[in-house]
Fold this protein.
Amino acid sequence: MSLPRGLRLVLLACTIFALVVIYVPLGIVVLNSFNTSGSFAWPPTGFTLEWWHRALTSPGARDALWVSLRVASLSTLLSLVLGTMAAMALSRHRFFGRNTVSLLVILPIALPGIVTGIALQNAFKNLLGIDLGFLTLVVAHATFCIVTVFNNVQARLRRLGGNLEEASMDLGAGTFTTFRLITFPMLRSALLAGGLLSFALSFDEIIVTTFTAGSHEETLPLWILNNMFRAQQAPVVNVVAAAVIVLSIVPIWLAQRLAGTDEGVAAAR
């Protein structure tokens, strides 16, 4: 479909404006991480790596990074298992309430983070009597990370259909053998893309984390929030924020590359 020239120019201008609004502030954060001025004078008064050295030697930042990596890894692993099982159950079987279950799986990603955080905190502390800590943090992150895996796997299963799996079972293969030899190889890139997105989502999460981490666990986003208004820590916070930007871009870029490769393979078939 060919759009009128005027409409194309309007869409281009809107796209450029949106990209500027999103990425110029991120670029300023990265530039300020090398700014010699601790008060972030603009334009930058000079170039320095001092703040990066302080960030690398900061025990609080290192500990928070380690917590974030562990939480993101475990919640991603949990999401891969549960999200794949849910997607296969809803894609390969018909039962009463199927659409309702699908809605309930997707709902956590659509709810405001503060609502999810309050609900999970009440469930952990009041209903289950569990002290907030590392375990509750992993479970809380998994509740919304499952959605990315579920959507990726379900979309792949719908595109592939069930003919190969049915042929495998007709030839005598059991359910688990069919999954290992047929289904899993077809889902690998979708699982990897979903896992990368889940990891990035968990690594950056702060609202749900605030309500479910307790007083003994501090992730990197929480460390940034707790230190950003301290004058002596502000330059280090800029460095950590710049590092988080890079760490967030990598898994999302890889997931996008995988999705593009999958579309090319599907078109070729």
